[in-house]
Amino acid sequence: MPTRRELLVALTWPALPAAGASPEAAATARLLAARYPVHAPLGYVGALTASAQRRLNGGRLPPGSRQALLALREAAPAVPPIDWPVRAGHAAFAEAALHDSDTASRELALQAVRTAIIETAQGPRLAGLRNWTDDLFMAALLFDRARPLLPGAEQPRAAEALAATLLTHAERLQRGDGLFDHAEGSPVAWGRGNGFASLGFALALAGPTPSTASQDGARLLPRLQAHLRALLPLQQEDGLWRQVLDDAASPVELTATAMNLTALAMARSRGWLPAGTADGAIARAWAAVNRRIDAEGGFSDVCASTPAGPTLAFYRNRPITSGRDDRAAALVLQAALAMGAAGQA
Fold first, then answer.
1. What does 300-332 look like in DSSP terms, one character per residue?
2. Of 70, 126, 225, 336, which has the highest C-beta tally within 10 A?
3. Cα–Cα distance between 321 and 268 in angstroms, integer?
């Protein structure tokens, strides 16, 4: 009979079928979970890595990661700043509340969600999101992990606020061909920026705003489907997507590939795309990602941190780095788990 902890893990992280799953997926996930994070201030990168570590370890954090999380908890302000990459880091507190029965972390996570929601003439919305794709993912991550903490009466309002805000931003940023501009004033289909969009929508639909829950939720799914369909023909023969997705002069890039792979695997497992549509792309993407990880957990073909920029040249010429990289580790871990790594370990 499963334990309460095992049931909670299953509820929080539903199993994903291993679409083209590779024997390397479990080993890759455990390699990265053991070597990262190197440096993890409060933010989405550390939250994703901690979440993966828990998923690989029955809901528990390794001792070093637990100590780091406790230190972040003690230093966190009672009301988080309106800085969505930081606020998204409260997803780690939400998981500590769920899996460790940590009441202080619970309060921080609930504050992060509740203080993000404001009332407008159109209904509840999220405050402080910048008009770029990055924050679509940040909001979806926080609400996905914190949703089980909210009382049942609060969950519909939170789902409405998230879904309506994502739709508003998509109306501004999603192009007619299904791809996303990185930001208003940045009319470029930056790879990781589109990864933030694809994975943000997939997370929202998988958890806080299921398509059957509301009219807004139902409107999210066609936008995700259009986006994923637009991504498929832009995958390169080696399995990667480019730094600028639709620019043949741009280099290939690892993190965008990992995020698109994860979103495609989620869509496949939930029937959001017709059977067989994405299987080949998922398998090719995972093989390409795995080839760019060395035995020590270093990476190649990783775009450096990138703000919104005004021109194609700005994105095309961003530094592409190699070596240890916390952000790449966090995003590749999600891809490895989506490939069924946890189930094959």
1. EEEEPP----SSHHHHHTS-EEEE--HHHHHHH
2. 336
3. 31
User: Is residue 4 pLDDT above 50, yes or no?
Assistant: no
Beta bridge partners of 120: 123
- Average pLDDT of the chain is 91
Can you give the residue ranges of every domain in the chain?
22-340
pTM score, two decimals?
0.92
pLDDT at 22 over 90: no
Please tell me the CATH code under which domain 22-340 is placed: 1.50.10.10
Alpha-carbon distance values, 269 to 20, 91, 263, 276 (Å): 12, 23, 10, 11
Counted residue by residue, the chain has a size of 345
Backbone angles phi, psi at 175, to 5 degrees: -85, 170
Strand partners, 125: 118
Q: Contact at 8 Å (CB) between 22 and 339?
A: yes
